[in-house]
Amino acid sequence: MKDITxxxxxxxxxxxxxxxxxxxxxxxxxxxxxxxxxxxxxxxRIEFILNRFDEAGLTDSSIDDSGNGVGILxxxxxxxxxxxxxxxxxxxxxxxxxTDHTMEISSxxxxxxxxxxxxLGLAALATLPYILEELEIxxxxxxxxxxxxxxLGRGNLEGIKFFLENSPFDIQSAICLEGIQLGRLSYxxxxxxxxxxxxxxxxxxxxxxxxxxxAILTLVxxxxxxxxxxxxxxxxxxxxxxxxxxxxxxxxxxxxxxLGFEVRSESQKVVExxxxxxxxxxxxxxxxxxxxxxxxxxxxxxxxxxxxxHPLTGCARxxxxxxxxxxxxxxxxxxxxxLIDKNIPALxxxxxxxxxxxxxxxxxxxxxIFKGLAxxxxxxxxVDGGHCE
Amino acid sequence: xxxxxxxxxxxxxxxxxxxxLRKLVETKEEKNLTISxxxxxxxxxxxIGKEIIIFRSELMERYPxxxxxxxxxxxxxxxxLEVAKNFGADTYxxxxxxxxxxxxxxxxxxxxxxxxQLKGDIIVYVDADISNIHPRFVYxxxxxxxxxxxxxxxxxxxxxxxxxSGGVRASGGGRVTEILVRPLFSLFFPDLxxxxxxxxxxxxxxxxxxxxxxxxxxxxxxxSHLIDVYHKxxxxxxAQTDLxxxxxxxxxxxxxxxxxxGILQTFIKRAxxxxxxxxxxxxxILRQFQATQEKYEQNLIEIIEEERPPMIExxxxxxxxxx
Lengths: 389, 323
Prior knowledge:
The complex is a heterodimer. Chain A is of the alpha+beta class. Chain A contains 10 helices and 18 strands. Helix content of chain B is 39%, strand content 17%. The N and C termini of chain B lie far apart (50 Å).
């Protein structure tokens, strides 16, 4: 594919050709999706992916010291001229191993926990070598396929960070795959920190006092104060208090209570200020109530990324337009930010449309997958052809 | 055969012994065998799509182990056939195969008509209600038939609990197997107790055998197969494969009563025809299974039902009560 115009005219045809691999991709999706992979316990999924890489003849595939599955499709250019393009999909899900991971397939959709986030991204990654070989699409550069572990929540992108820190490859660009939504185009990361605030009633508390102590009440005070924080409209900033737990029974005093929250902002300065303010709130409430209140920040991202006008974004937009996809620009806080931290131009793309993300009845549509795959392969061809630098 | 242990050791497999699909396909091609997969259905729209996708992708496109996948339906009123067709299976209504014959409804009818409709030298039957479907359900069953010419009928069984702390555990089939079929076999066909799960709905059979045996239409089909194949070819024609865990909906006891009633009818018919009620001395050993991590063993328990006569026949009794 010499130029971007001939690539653009090829993509609708590629979309049709990809339909041949429907059962193959869906079988991989079902088999991957039915292996539970909560963060820190992704081994079985990674083994499955590695098997697929091996079967596709990726002789250099391996599991690295962090547990990531890595496959290498060697490019056809001379060794000295070959660089690397990274395709990444995170392997972990938010669901515990106890969740029933059965996938249900109807004529046009698949439902099951984690099917969109990110079993489909992984299935696309696992099926890619086979499809490329069948369609006789060869790259000049090495294609590095990374099934990254320890990505979500407390994993804090540990897998991909380890890979980027230790891999010998000269990565020129990267594409992150997410199951949904098709049309998303993320090229920048926003600033974020994520943490937990834990309130505990101290051990030596006088339990004979009637009903005036509760870790829940203390936590509510913290929540109210966070809610009263003044956040700037520009740069855009938000606080999400997404998870709460505490207490043991209706009629006992709650000894502990925990809030999970996340601050996001386009500005690193605002993120840092918010962190300081929350730290102050925690200390203030702690000293006033006598309860033990602690802040644990376990995940941080700094804002950054390539500009909208970067050729990589331009390539992806071109590819999407030729497939009648309207690019929806949105920043990301996932693996993209680990790549941005390393100054690697990177994008996150979605594979299909879906709904009820993060619920056990998460659903994805089958038909748009082929457009999503054509978009991924098209972008890779463009990157490989040197059109995106 | 009073000691079935040698047979069990020789003919009981675990699906993992057939993991090398490349070798399996090569041997199948060398022997010039064709294999058809039959999925009998009745309102199975929730699970059928997944079964077809997995089998087509893994066992037709990636490794050409099976030559056709056919769904034979008893007249579902949900979307079973539409889903199956959409994912590339051949779909048939049982009533449209051999349409001149009187119509009968039941799973056995679908299995029987598959012999006429499908082309393979081996037919693999897999129930369509399995939610944890995996290619092992097929390759585990055809493996012994591909590698061993003398094996004609391979039955699946499910065991291997997820958490197991070692030592010996009770093993065997479901409730109907343990309460009805195993005691009946222990009494009249002790050899057949070597089958760990005689009622499992997953089996692979050579056409030359299928065309020679009758098919009960309802619940008795698995039981009658075992008796008839055993009668014609002996225990050596069988093998069985551990397919690990099978997840499906459990039936309530009231439904198991219906199933048992059907099985009992089939059994009595066969037992009478083979004259086993009169000609053999009834055995008093119940043969159950126990398993260690790797090995299955029969557990033989002697249960003798001794009887006392009516009290009136005892002289002391008559004296005491002056009768």
